[in-house]
C-alpha cells in the first residue's frame, strides 16, 4: 500500500496493514468577495425578458464547456440541444440539455467533427443557433459557412475573422498593419531547410520554427544554431502536415524566458469592442496551460492598458464580433509581442468572469443575435483575484502528465467550500476514455486578494475527491504553494526550471515526516478499534480496554517505531505529536488537527496496472479498488481491442 501526501508531503510506502491515504494541508477559513453563491458562479446574467435572443441553441461540443453553455442558456430561458457520440450517451451534458442527438461513434472524426451529422441534428431539432464551445469545430470557417448558408446563427465571429486569425502568417501581417507589437521574424512562408537557416541567421538565434496553421504546441521547435534549424524545419513541417494538413512554416525570434499573458476581448457587430483585462497563463507543460490567474502579478496599469488597446485594435481590424482572446508574449522588461488570436471562448474564461462579473457566454449569445454591447470600457472592473487549475486525469510523475483512463469510482467536488467554482462535465461513474481530452474539471477559486484566492485553492484541492483514475492534483498543489509561484516570479519555463528531472513530489522534511507517521498511526488505530467493536458486538463479548499502542510504520525505505496514547499523543523518536479529530471512517475526507494545524486526509485507491498506447498517446489504467492482481491476460506490445480482459483483480 502507499501513503500519499500532497502540499508539504511526498509519496512514500507504508505497510499493507495501513489503508491508502491522501494527506493534505487544510487551510483555515478566509474571508473575501464571493465567486460562488449556493454553488452558482457570481457572474451576472442580466438579459432583459424583453430582449429576445434565440428559442433554441445547439451546443456542438461535449464535457464541461457544453455544460457551461447550457447553464447560461437555462438562465436566459433558451432551450438547448446536446450532440453526443455513442459512448457519451449518458454524459452529463446530455442529461442537462432539453434534447439530445447522437451524431456518430466515439472517434471525434465520426461524431464531434462530423459536420454532416451535426447539420442534420440542427435541422431535425429546429435549432436557431449553434454555440461551438472550444476545440472541435469552434474555429472551423467551413462549419460557420454551412451554418450561415442555412440561416443558422454561429455564436462566434464571422468566417473572415476566423480565416484571418487562424492563419499565423496572415494574422501577423494584419497585426503589424493594425500597429500591434509583433515578434521580429520572417513574414512569408519558409520553403526549404536551407532557406530556414539563412532566415534564422538574419533574425539572430534563438528562433522559433512553427506551423502557420498550428496550435496547442504542435509543429513548434526552438533552434539555437544552424543544425537545430535544419532539424526543426524537418520535424515541424512533418508534424504540421500530419496534424493540420498544412506544412507551411514561419520563423520568428524566440523570446527567451517569457510570460504568456492574454487579453480577453468582446466585440459586437456595430463596431464596439472592449478589453476585459488580462489572464496570466505562463504555467504550462508541453505548451499547454495548467494554472491560470487574473489579473497578472506582473502588469502595471500602463502596460495593461497598452496591451488591451492593441488587442482591441486587432479585433477591429478584422471586424471581430464575439468573445475572443489575443495572446501575447511578455519579456522581463514588459515588452509585449502578439502571439496569436483565438477566435472562440477560451478554456480559462471563468477567471475573467470572476473579476469582471460578466457572463461571457451570455454576451456571445447577445452579440450573435445582433445586440450592441451593454458596457463601455469604463464599466469593466478588476474586482479581486481569481485562479484556475485544470484538473486532468493524468499521471503528473510522467512528463508532467500522461493521460490516465478509467471510470470515476468515487467523485466529490469541493463545492461545500466558500468561493469555489467547479466547471465540469463528469460525475461519479463517468468514464475517462482514450477518445477525448482527459480534463476532469476546471477548479476556480476567488478572493479579494491573490493570497486569499491561493489559500482557497489549496483548500479546494485538498478537499477534491477523485478515485478510479490517476490525476494531477499533487502537481497542481505543488505549483500553487511553490515559493516562486507565490512570489509571482514565473515564466513559461517554470515547470522545467523548477523540476528539471520531472515532477517527483515534495520531499518531506523531518517535521512533516513525523506528522505523516503520527496521522497514519492514529487512523490505523481508529480503524482497528472500530473493527474490534463490531466483532465484540457480534459475539456478545466485552472488549479489552487499551490505553497505549506500539506500532512499526514503514515510510519509504525507513521503519519507524511509534507509540500512541489513548489521548491522541503520538511519540516518535522522543518527539510528541498531538493528533485529534472526530473521524468518520466511512467518509472519503477525514479532517484532523495535528499539533494545532488543520489537516485533511483522504483514503484512496489508484495504483497503475498497465499502460495502453492509443492514437500516439500513452494512457494509464489504474485500479479502482484495493485489491491484489489475480492474473494478467496481455503482454507488452500486444494489440488489444475494446472489451478485452487485460488484468484481473481479486
UniProtKB/TrEMBL annotation:
SMART domains the UniProt entry points to: Biotin_carb_C (SM00878)
Gene Ontology biological process terms from the UniProt entry: lipid catabolic process
Pfam families xrefs: Biotin_carb_C (PF02785), Biotin_carb_N (PF00289), Biotin_lipoyl (PF00364), CPSase_L_D2 (PF02786)
Entry keywords, A to Z: ATP-binding, Biotin, Ligase, Magnesium, Metal-binding, Nucleotide-binding
Record-annotated Biotin carboxylation domain positions: 53-500
GO cellular component: mitochondrial matrix
Chain ranges of the ATP-grasp domain: 174-369
Cofactor(s) needed: biotin
GO molecular function, one term: propionyl-CoA carboxylase activity
InterPro entries in UniProt: ATP-grasp, ATP_grasp_subdomain_1, BC-like_N, Biotin_BS, Biotin_carboxylase_complex, Biotin_carboxylation_dom, Biotin_COase_C, Biotin_lipoyl
Name the UniProt record assigns to this protein: Propionyl-CoA carboxylase
Amino acid at each position: 500500500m502507499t501513503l500519499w501526501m500532497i502540499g508539504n508531503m511526498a509519496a512514500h510506502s507504508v505497510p499493507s496493514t495501513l489503508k491508502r491515504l491522501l494527506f493534505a494541508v487544510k487551510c483555515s477559513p478566509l474571508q473575501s468577495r464571493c465567486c460562488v453563491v449556493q454553488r452558482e458562479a457570481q457572474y451576472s446574467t442580466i438579459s432583459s425578458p424583453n430582449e429576445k435572443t434565440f428559442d433554441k441553441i445547439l451546443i456542438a461540443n461535449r464535457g464541461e464547456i457544453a455544460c457551461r453553455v447550457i447553464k447560461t442558456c437555462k438562465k436566459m430561458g433558451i432551450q438547448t440541444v446536446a450532440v453526443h457520440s455513442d459512448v457519451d450517451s449518458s454524459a452529463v451534458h446530455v442529461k442537462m440539455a432539453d434534447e439530445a442527438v447522437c451524431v456518430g461513434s466515439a472517434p471525434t472524426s465520426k461524431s464531434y467533427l462530423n459536420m454532416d451529422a451535426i447539420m442534420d441534428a440542427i435541422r431535425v431539432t429546429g435549432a436557431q443557433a449553434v454555440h461551438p464551445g472550444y476545440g472541435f469545430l469552434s474555429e472551423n470557417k467551413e462549419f460557420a459557412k454551412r451554418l450561415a448558408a442555412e440561416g443558422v446563427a454561429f455564436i462566434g465571429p464571422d468566417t473572415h475573422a476566423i480565416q484571418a486569425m487562424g492563419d499565423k502568417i496572415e494574422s501577423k501581417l494584419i497585426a503589424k498593419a493594425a500597429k500591434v507589437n509583433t515578434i521580429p521574424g520572417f513574414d512569408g512562408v519558409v520553403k526549404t531547410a536551407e532557406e530556414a537557416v539563412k532566415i534564422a541567421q538574419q533574425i539572430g538565434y534563438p528562433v522559433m520554427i512553427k506551423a502557420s496553421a498550428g496550435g496547442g504546441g504542435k509543429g513548434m521547435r526552438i533552434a539555437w544554431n544552424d543544425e537545430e534549424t535544419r532539424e526543426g524545419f524537418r520535424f515541424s513541417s512533418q508534424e504540421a502536415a500530419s496534424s493540420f494538413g498544412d506544412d507551411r512554416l514561419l520563423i520568428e525570434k524566440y523570446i527567451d524566458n517569457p510570460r504568456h499573458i492574454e487579453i480577453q476581448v468582446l466585440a459586437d457587430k456595430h463596431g464596439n469592442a472592449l478589453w476585459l483585462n488580462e489572464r496570466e497563463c505562463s504555467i504550462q507543460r508541453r505548451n499547454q496551460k495548467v494554472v491560470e490567474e487574473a489579473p497578472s502579478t506582473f502588469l502595471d496599469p500602463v502596460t495593461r492598458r497598452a496591451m488591451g488597446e492593441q488587442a482591441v485594435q486587432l479585433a477591429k481590424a478584422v471586424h471581430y464580433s464575439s468573445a475572443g482572446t489575443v495572446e501575447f508574449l511578455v519579456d522581463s522588461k514588459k515588452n509585449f509581442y502578439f502571439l496569436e488570436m483565438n477566435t472562440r471562448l477560451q478554456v480559462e474564461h471563468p477567471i475573467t468572469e470572476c473579476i469582471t462579473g460578466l457572463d461571457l457566454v451570455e454576451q456571445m449569445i447577445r452579440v450573435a443575435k445582433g445586440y450592441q454591447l451593454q458596457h463601455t470600457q469604463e464599466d469593466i472592473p478588476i474586482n479581486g483575484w481569481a485562479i484556475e487549475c485544470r484538473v486532468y486525469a493524468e499521471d503528473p510523475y510522467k512528463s508532467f502528465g500522461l493521460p490516465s483512463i478509467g471510470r470515476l469510482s468515487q467523485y466529490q467536488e469541493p463545492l461545500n467550500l466558500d468561493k469555489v467554482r467547479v466547471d465540469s462535465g463528469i460525475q461519479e461513474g463517468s468514464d475517462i476514455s482514450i477518445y477525448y481530452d482527459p480534463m476532469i474539471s476546471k477548479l476556480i477559486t476567488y478572493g479579494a486578494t491573490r493570497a486569499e484566492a491561493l489559500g482557497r485553492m489549496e483548500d479546494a484541492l485538498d478537499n477534491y475527491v477523485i478515485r478510479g483514475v490517476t490525476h494531477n492534483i499533487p502537481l497542481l498543489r505543488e505549483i500553487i504553494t511553490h515559493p516562486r509561484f507565490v512570489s509571482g516570479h514565473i515564466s513559461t519555463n517554470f515547470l522545467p526550471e523548477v523540476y528539471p528531472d520531472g515532477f517527483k513530489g515534495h520531499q518531506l522534511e523531518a517535521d512533516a515526516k513525523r506528522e505523516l507517521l503520527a496521522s497514519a498511526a492514529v487512523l490505523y488505530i481508529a480503524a482497528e478499534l472500530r473493527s474490534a467493536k463490531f466483532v465484540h458486538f457480534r459475539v456478545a463479548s466485552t472488549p479489552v480496554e487499551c490505553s497505549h499502542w506500539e506500532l512499526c510504520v514503514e515510510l519509504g525505505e525507513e521503519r519507524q517505531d511509534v507509540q500512541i496514547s489513548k489521548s491522541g499523543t503520538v511519540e516518535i523518536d522522543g518527539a510528541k505529536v498531538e493528533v485529534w479529530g472526530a473521524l468518520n471512517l466511512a467518509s472519503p475526507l477525514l479532517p484532523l488537527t495535528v499539533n494545532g494545524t488543520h489537516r485533511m486526509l483522504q483514503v484512496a485507491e489508484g495504483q497503475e496496472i498497465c499502460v495502453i498506447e492509443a492514437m500516439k498517446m500513452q494512457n494509464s489504467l489504474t485500479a479502482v479498488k484495493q485489491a491484489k492482481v489475480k492474473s494478467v491476460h496481455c503482454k507488452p506490445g500486444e494489440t488489444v481491442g475494446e472489451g478485452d480482459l487485460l488484468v484481473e483483480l481479486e
